[in-house]
Write a structure and sequence with these properties.
Helix content: 10-25%
Strand content: 35-45%
Largest sheet: 5 strands, antiparallel
Number of helices: 2
Oligomer: single chain
Amino acid sequence: MSTKPEATVFKYVKEEPKRSKGMQLLCRTDRVVAAVQVVKAGGETNLHSHSLLDGVWFVLKGRAKFYTMDDELVADLGPHEGILVPRDYPYWFERGDGPDDLEILQVEASSKPVATMEEFIQDRTDYTPRKSAVSDAEVTETWEAKS
């Protein structure tokens, strides 16, 4: 007998990151995860891709610059602007110019069911060394605790 699906209600309230980047899980299923990243100066990512995940990134506050191979600028986004990053697309992003922290909504959809947040995170190919101020272990621990 299958269980009846339930809707998940959530609310975002900014938490100050302990480092130059922080993540707050909003909700997840076995195929979708939604979070908000707060990025301060120095919290940029490295060039990477995901083989199973299509990602939507939507700027809530501040600015974000998204790049692909050879540091080619793909998008310079302000509030209420976003980008769809399809699986296997190499990208990295950083906080854009301006005084505000970047607050960016991240919604990732997996092409196969995943049981844990660690599986979402492990679906990653790094093209350059990681710059992230948040380790995979910290993300997994934070997201698993809230899910």
